[in-house]
Amino acid sequence: QGYVIGLKKAQTKPHNLKKIEHVIDLEPVLNEELLQLSDWLAKKTFSFRISSLQTILPGVMRGKYHKYAQVTDTEDPKVKSVFKHQRMIEITDQLDAQVISDLMRWRQAGKVKFEYAVENQARVKKQKAIILDHSGQEYEKLSQKLRKRAPKQAAVLAYLAREAKEQKHILLQVLNKKFSSSAIRSLVEKSILTEQNVEVKREVIPTDKAFVHEHDKPLLPDQQKAVIAINQATAAKAKKVFLLEGVTGSGKTEVYLQSIKAVLAKGRTALMLVPEIALTPQMVQRVYARFGHQVAVLHSGLSNGEKYDEWRRINANEARVVVGARSAIFAPLKNIGLIIMDEEHEYSYKQEDTPRYHARDVALHRAQVHNCPVVLGSATPSLESRARAEKGVYQLLLLPQRVNQAPLPHVHIVDMRENIEKHRTLDFSRALSDAITVRLAKKEQSVLMLNRRGFSSFVMCRNCGYVAKCPNCDISLTLHMSSHTLKCHYCGHEEQIPKTCPNCHSQKIRYYGTGTEKVAQELKQMYPEARIIRMDVDTTRRKGAYEQLLKKFEKREADILLGTQMIAKGLDFPNVTLVGVINADTALGLPDFRASERTFQLLTQVSGRAGRGSKKGEVYVQSYNPDHYAIKLAQKQDYEQFFRQEMRLRHEGGYPPYYFTVLLQTTHPDESQAAKAAYSILKAIQPYLSEQAIILGPTPKAIARVKNQYYYQIIIKYKNEPKLAVGLNHILELSAKAHDRLLKIAIDREPLQF
Ligand code: ADP
Ligand code: ZN
Ligand code: ZN
């Protein structure tokens, strides 16, 4: 399946061109801008044009194409033996190569015919409706005529007389609720009314609440300054980039909403990106409350039908504000007047699969094309963006205070090293458990964050040190008590918990570490009265589960919300006065030059969940590294200081944003082949690099094996390498020509982690 991306006149017929067998879409599926964007994206990320086209056009808009062979000559015994008793067989890659070539031959000989079918993942939803094909006056006249003889039918027509002025049709379902269905039926039978199927778009309203309109809030001086600056840029069609830096609760969202409003008033459209939107129903709700049905939402939590309708609503200019997660940056909006990226530092904006793009780069590019500004918002901007603001490439807009003047919560750091001996459980310090007790007594709510799901991190034999590991990945298995199994969080492998050590047969199997499931159980023991909600990948897998659990917490049907980092973002509950971070150090332990940045961002963000209402908030951060600068500065919510210190370290270590980076990765089920390929890539790229480029590797990746695939990597750090792009294109070509189909080569520009 391919795409027509342009037409070219040729003098002679090129001999190696294939014929187009079947055309799937008769109208273009991507507009000119998106078609050009696919070219830019492929070049920017060093990937093939086909994968960038597939990224830009959502799966639901792509027809799945089937090819069938149909017998026309049933006499040929060879043909018969392939078809057996069927008339048609589907031609797929699974078919034997010999069979496929036979079918081709028979087709030439006219013994077999090829048929095509396109199957869409989603379809237009239709419902029965009455078409209003007369004028209001005509319906009125008809109604008068029937008044005596058939008063019920007359009532229907009188109603339609009014509706015909506003609408082209009315759903039968709606009409049946208001009038007797037999009256409607007789009118249809007498051909006075016309019944027809019409398309109804699926509505993606984020909650069960009916739509409540909300007005703009009068802006505070800092918000006002920001909105004016953005509005000036949109009015002037200036391709400016703003970095809106404001602590949590400083009113950034209000700035977004009012800037969007100004853009819509000028007849242009707006695009707003939020991280993993399924996780922020509150944000979607707020945008809906301002702009109603002009809003379209795009994210992975929608059904295929919903995605299909939302995309088409945007493409047809019916929706003029798009809120969505990463891939919504490709929404087919025309005449964009503003692009907003909330929580611009979030990692989910980077796609970790080909094409490995960052939504921020795409946003900046589309803004160039549409002549519009971009607003990047965050309480803890990425170092890259903040450094650009420092240089004047971006304009910094600051919201230094919380809207309601609410002071930032008081953050306590609890030194867990002292807690190990003193207390019965390792997960809760006395300080944190006392704080929870106080909230329960005052009927206030607590949010507890733990960066690990499951029961324990790992299972170990106390006798011989055996650790249960995944057979497919180089990672230990996690205990899940509810299913009584050990699971691999990388590949999904699941097995029974061993009763005796598989290595030394002793019974001294012990559980180490901690997980949400275990902490929830501990909480229940410590506070039998408390109502606890556990929120992690396991409890939110079902569609709508996340929203339901949050709703329950919002309605104060629970006292404690315990969750993984998915609870750190965007939640705004005024009755939450306590936030506890069970283990602040998880991220610090990762082999990642951004470990400190991640830790600082996460702690700042989760602390922002406390004291959002009129009551003062408190935060307890439990740590085994209480003196680490990321933790200390998060305690003070001192982004400025963190930025300076971290920039110094990045400078010394030769990391971004001082250096550009490219990661080259090889993957193979045979470790030696993965390594060999990495070395040959190194040899291939070296001629394109100068003396100044720093090359690290090849080395195995930190987790060297996942799903029985081995990973090797090379990292190139550089400041200015004019020939690098040519070199990377060369690698891309090599990857396409590789004879070994099991070998995979990836190019990752500016990887978020290595
Ligand atoms: P942020 O996005 O920076 O976390 P929000 O925009 O969510 O901050 O604002 C925090 C709270 O303050 C929200 O409940 C919001 O409705 C309210 N708010 C924002 N701006 C104003 C304003 N100018 N006047 C009154 N309330 C405001
Ligand atoms: Zn053992
Ligand atoms: Zn695994």
Structure, described:
This protein is α/β, with parallel strands linked by helices and 754 residues long. It contains 23 helices and 28 strands. It has a 7-stranded parallel beta sheet with strand order 9-10-8-11-12-7-13, with helices on both faces. The chain is globular. The two termini are 35 Å apart. One zinc ion (ZN) binds next to loops.
Number of strands: 28
**Rg, alpha carbons:** 31 Å
Task: Label the overall shape.
Answer: globular
Distance between the termini: 35 Å
Question: Helix proportion of residues, in percent?
Answer: 25-40%
Structural class: alpha/beta
Low-confidence stretches: none
Number of helices: 23
Largest sheet: 7 strands, parallel
Mean pLDDT level: 87
Strand order, sheet with most strands: 9-10-8-11-12-7-13
Strand residue percentage? 15-25%
The oligomeric status of these chains comes to single chain
Ligands in the model, by name, code or SMILES, are: adenosine-5'-diphosphate, zinc ion
Which SSEs are present, and which pair or pack?
Elements: H1 32-45, H2 49-56, E1 64-71, H3 77-83, E2 88-90, H4 97-108, E3 112-119, E4 126-131, H5 136-146, H6 151-163, E5 169-171, H7 172-178, H8 181-189, E6 194-199, H9 221-235, E7 241-246, H10 252-265, E8 269-273, H11 281-291, E9 295-298, H12 304-315, E10 321-324, E11 336-341, H13 359-370, E12 374-378, H14 383-391, E13 395-399, E14 410-415, H15 416-422, H16 430-442, E15 445-449, E16 458-461, E17 478-480, E18 485-487, E19 494-496, E20 509-512, H17 516-526, E21 532-535, H18 545-554, E22 560-563, E23 576-581, H19 595-607, E24 618-623, H20 629-635, H21 639-653, E25 660-668, H22 671-685, E26 694-706, E27 709-718, H23 724-737, E28 744-749
Parallel strand pairs: 7-12, 7-13, 8-10, 8-11, 9-10, 11-12, 14-24, 15-22, 15-23, 21-22, 23-24
Antiparallel strand pairs: 1-2, 1-3, 4-5, 4-6, 16-20, 17-18, 18-19, 25-27, 25-28, 26-27
Helix pairs in contact: 1-2, 5-6, 9-10, 19-20
This protein binds adenosine-5'-diphosphate (ADP) and zinc ion (2 copies).
